[in-house]
Amino acid sequence: MDIITKPKLSRRIWDYALLTILAVVVLAPFLIGLWTSFLPTMQIAKGNFLSTQVSFQNYIDAFTQTPILRYLGNSLVISTATMIAQLIFCSMSAYAFVFLKFKGRKFLFGLFLATMMLPFEAEIIPNFQTVKALGLLNTYSVMVIPFLTSAFGVFMLRQSFMQMPIELKEAADIEGLGHFQFYWKMVLPYNRIPLMTLGAYSFLGAWNQYLWPMLTTFSNDFRPVQNGLRQLQSEETFNDWGMIQATAAIVVIPTLIVLFIGQHYFKSGVNEGAVK
Amino acid sequence: MLKSPAQSTPTTPLSVEKTKSEIADQEAKFTLNAKDKYFAWAFLGPSLLILGVFIFYPMVKTLYLSLFLTNTVGKTTVFVGLSNYINLLTSADYLSSLGVTLFYVFAVTIITIALGLVLANLASKRLPGIGIFRTLFSATMGVSVSVAAIFWLFIFNPSTGFLSLASTWLHLPQIPWLTDPTAAMWAVIVTTVWMNLGFTFLILLGAMTSVPTTLYEAANIEGASSRFQFFHITIPSISPTLFFVSIITLIESFKSFGLIDLMTKGGPTNATNMLVYRIYKDAFYSGNYAQASAESIILTIIIALFTLLQFKVLEKRVNY
């Protein structure tokens, strides 16, 4: 809502005050957590929230006494692999639905559409049996293979592939480009922005997985960071609030940085899907 | 909202189909090529394989399991027809889970949308430095489920938590946040709303900033109050987006699992034992795979209905 008329000064002060208060309220849980991550656990336990004994000790403890770096590394591997796979397989499927004419295209498209109605959470029993039978339990693969593609990604890319100017395809036909060349040399570069949006989505989606890794990983060697943090809380560190808050900060800060850099792409991608 | 794993984002409105004439138009522009068939299989093959193995097959298998009794390793023993469903829908315990989930889902959705509208409406004003506030308001998007749980578990902690300290300072009565059934439900709702807020805010802001400014200029000339403008210009103009985020929030809330596991483990006394957590417990703790499968099918039906509603309404593009 962009009101162009010049607002009065008092009105502006009121707006800024309200914005600041709301920002503090929204960020409060984060700020409280960050603050306690610098306090000794003894002081937190005593309720001495305004203690002045601030230090980086909790962070040193978190890095040296917990496998938090290993968890982060695991999540990085899993999320990167998932992202790359989805970019490739989703764009290939979207290409087929937009640029290839074949029998059963409508039916297959309907099939993809249907998968959006089936929640993965309701399929964990057979999926667990499947990966167990394949000997994939407690590996990186078990957290990547079921998510190599996503109907969401296919739809998002199909939507933007369809908006490509028809002249590009005609030019490619005249040049004698085959499908693989057209896909690789023209379709992908032309759709950089939606591809980056999907990349960000699939990366964060994999990063935030919780239920599936919890069922399929049992050791710190493969456990991603969400489940790692849970593991730390259930271990002896349970009441070491200072260190737990430090691990949370270590996890959230890189995500926030990535998010602020990628925010533009999120916004444009989602809105495109929402209202076009 | 990005807590959703890659597969569980079935809620996008990207179904936004081209109209029939557009498709026909497009098809006419491409020359039919017999070789396309082989390319189609090459391009679609990998995705079809994955969706087949991890989405379609397990749905059929879950349906199958739900019609049998199963042993402790999940093998079927006796065919029982619909009796797993009948048992569930007549069990006070399951109906209570269903009720608890519905309460949670609607509370989360209504509060998230209301707060998202407040934040987006404020942040859509053209003020110097507004970009900073927009970034701050969207920050919870970057907070993952276990980090959010840690932040809020500390806030709700009965002995050393922030709310407990604040109540002491302000001489307010202590609320046993995670041990009282009602308070625990609200603790989970508040945490979920907080996690959702960044995403919801960003989407609503995007919609609000693309409302034509001429509408507001006209309203200003007529002397319409800002409240009137909000309800009679902003809300109707962003209704497609409003509908989209509401239904996404609704569907994601039905699938909530992480926060329940991290904060309450379904307790106290099943007060937060929601549908997905229940499936997990019944299958992987109690080994009652048949019943968990029936619960999975019920969950799928609920989510499929809301997704279909979303497809239908988006096809009509709400009103503009």
From TrEMBL, chain A:
Transmembrane segment boundaries: 16-38, 76-100, 107-125, 137-157, 193-212, 241-261
Topology term for the membrane: Multi-pass membrane protein
Pfam families in the cross-refs: BPD_transp_1
Subcellular localization(s) per the UniProt record: Cell membrane
GO biological process terms on file: transmembrane transport
A single cellular component GO annotation: plasma membrane
Keywords, comma-separated and alphabetical: Cell membrane, Membrane, Transmembrane, Transmembrane helix, Transport
CDD domains reported in the protein's UniProt record: TM_PBP2 (cd06261)
Family statement: Belongs to the binding-protein-dependent transport system permease family.
Name of the protein this chain belongs to: ABC transporter
Organism of derivation: Lentilactobacillus otakiensis DSM 19908 = JCM 15040
TrEMBL record, chain B:
Keywords: Cell membrane, Membrane, Transmembrane, Transmembrane helix, Transport
Taxonomy, superkingdom: Bacteria
InterPro entries for this protein: ABC_transporter_permease, MetI-like, MetI-like_sf
Family: Belongs to the binding-protein-dependent transport system permease family.
Keyword Membrane (UniProt): yes
PANTHER family, per the entry: ABC TRANSPORTER PERMEASE PROTEIN, INNER MEMBRANE ABC TRANSPORTER PERMEASE PROTEIN YCJO
SUPFAM superfamilies: MetI-like
Places the protein is found: Cell membrane
Leader sequence residues: none
Segments crossing the lipid bilayer: 38-57, 64-82, 102-123, 135-155, 183-207, 228-251, 296-314
Gene3D superfamilies listed in its UniProt record: MetI-like
Membrane-topology annotation of the record: Multi-pass membrane protein
Name of this protein: ABC transporter
